[in-house]
From TrEMBL, chain A:
Keywords: Membrane, Signal, Transmembrane, Transmembrane helix. Coiled coil: none annotated. The chain crosses the membrane at residues 508-530. This is Cytochrome c bacterial. It comes from the Bacteria. One of its GO terms (molecular function) is oxidoreductase activity.
From TrEMBL, chain B:
This is Thiosulfate reductase cytochrome B subunit (Membrane anchoring protein). InterPro entries: Cyt_b561_bac/Ni-Hgenase, Di-haem_cyt_TM, Hydrogenase_cytochrome, Ni-dep_Hydgase_cyt-B. It comes from the Bacteria. It comes from Marinobacter excellens HL-55. Its main location: membrane. GO terms for cellular component: plasma membrane. Pfam families: Ni_hydr_CYTB. The chain crosses the membrane at residues 12-30, 50-67, 115-138, 144-171. The keyword Iron applies. It is a multi-pass membrane protein. Keywords: Cell membrane, Electron transport, Heme, Iron, Membrane, Metal-binding, Transmembrane, Transmembrane helix, Transport. The keyword Electron transport applies. One of its GO terms (molecular function) is heme binding. One of its GO terms (biological process) is respiratory electron transport chain.
Amino acid sequence: MGRISRRLSTRSIVFLTFFGVITVSLVQSVNAVQQPSPTADHSKFKVLQGPFERAEDVTTACLECHTEAGEQIRGTTHWSWVYKHQETGQTLGKSQVINSFCGMAVTNEPRCTSCHVGYGWEDMKQPPPTADNAVDCLVCHDTTGGYWKFPTLAGHPSYIPREWPKGSGKMVQPPDLEHIAQNVGSSGRANCGSCHFYGGGGDGVKHGDLDSSLVNPPKELDVHMSPDGLNFSCSDCHTTGGHAVTGSRYQMTAKDQLGIDVPGHTDFTRASCESCHGLQPHQAQKLNDHIDKLACQTCHVPAFARGGVPTKTWWDWSTAGRLDEGGKPLEIMDEHGHPSYLSEKGDFRHGENVIPEYAWFDGTVKYTMVEDALDIDHPPVAVNRVEGHPDDPGSRIWPFKVMRGKQPFDLQHQTLLATHVFGADDTSLWSNYSWEKALQAASEMSGMPYSGEFDFIETTMHWPITHMVPPADQALDCGSCHQADSRLAGLGGIYMPGHDRSVWLDRIGWLLVAAALFGVLVHAAARIVVSRRRGQ
Amino acid sequence: MSRVMIFKRFERFWHWAQALLIFVLLYTGFTIHGTLTTLEFGTAVEVHTLAAWALIVLWLFAIFWHVTTGEWRQYIPTRNGLFAVMHYYVVGTFTGAPHPYRKTSQAKHNPLQRLAYLFFKLVISPVIWASGLLYLFYNDWPGVLAGALSLEAVALVHTGAAFAMLVLVIAHVYMATLGKTVTSHIKPMITGYEDLEERH
């Protein structure tokens, strides 16, 4: 009987092991499911046969069927570049804020407005163009990769062959609008990425966790977006409805208390880890015990700019304008081949595999607007600051890219200054390398006050890190934070075993231990000496 | 010369299992504290937690055993002979005087041991258990507790008790060698039997 049951149990163990292996491999092979094909084949639509002379003509055709799409787009931040912050009351958005990259979008049209989801916004003092067909459908819905908003045409693609980058000799051909129009589809990573990966003027410059490596990332770079993984498009998390995209950097959900998003029951956005992974995502309870204080990203994005594209970490505008002996602009590269000095832009530092900095964050980002006075006696000044506090139950520890650099400010008004860097005119910094002219022109163009006296001040800017999540086995281990030389050193507000201790308790404790050992040693030594003497 | 059973089988199992667990807990505990770095923090926490639960279970059995067998009486403090034992450790052990205490199965601990073990059982261990369980279940503290107590306070008490435990372990291990020969106290803890000889 005993033998039979033992044999049975051996067999069942073998079976269970086999079954377990099969189950695990099935679970691990849950990869991207092919998206079902759409209900319309756009190449069959008569209205999309063309020919199209300009991109607006395609929009006109789109609106024939998608009657509300234009109006919907015009109601979004993607269009208005204005964001009314519910918590701080600040009016933010690309048309309002200043950053530590190229300063403001205002005064740098049509370069900056090349990323506007429309055509022809050439003067940002005015609202975006009002024509129905000024909305750009193709930037988000092109599936061919052939559509490209030319960087200097206020949102238009180029309709003639044009050289880009300037002086490179490379010609950009006009897009095949008929082909593109007949192959529209839902937005993929490359669509959103065509603007969001290139913020700050180039690939990966701004965010650190968003760059062109995410168009086709390996699983190690981004487990969600990788074609070898789940092959998510941005909108799989940044859920859209009526062309409005959820998930805001100005007002983030720092702590999603709703958990898994059940349609009809929660907030209709999956732009948080908890939206899919829930509020108890780990098998180990001790790990789940951390989620009240730690954002998922803090452990699960151990470093950013990991895809081979560097991100800018330092930008010193104060050195811009230096020319070589022949009066020609300089271009100096660092040891990795990234520019470290450009006459147009000043000094740079770039980073790859950058370890984030950490801060308590309740989701609210407050900006220093151009009219806000700076505390110039205590640089660096914060261009934006993240709010949050260890005692606030809505705050968690989040990872950030902290962008640092120097940018111009008004000595008299003690405010940051708009800068006119781009423009084929006599005043832009990039045409004549004169800050005096560029700042004066920016003031005249924007109507923002400028005393005529300027200097440069060191600034910081916080960029929340949330993308580039590697597979779970590459998350930080406990010791990354639970040690003296911790990633979270200096953060404060929590007692972290292994990191925090009472110096006095340790001193007294080790003193007692040492005393005990000393007593034992002396006693033992005395015993040995005495016993030897008695032995003699 | 006759042999007499001093430490019963359960008692010996309890002693050595507890000894092993305490060493594991000290090692992993001081890793978690940041003193030792040979083990990864997460592993140390897992082993520490596991060993703590094992020790708690062991203690439940031990308490049951002590109560049902009446062995708890072994720890009733007495002043009778206390100073003689202390005098022996300070002076007698060097002059070759005999140990003033003879253990029997009825009274297996000398008066100093009784005091030390009672302190271990009634003070250090309860403080370690209480602070350790509070530490472990920090996230599940009810609001009243969370308002009154901080993790830092709990951690400091737990660490303080750990230092006390370490000092006790050092003294205990050394004093185990203070028998007639270096091993004569240790042998009964392993075999259970004490050799009873005539006093000389």
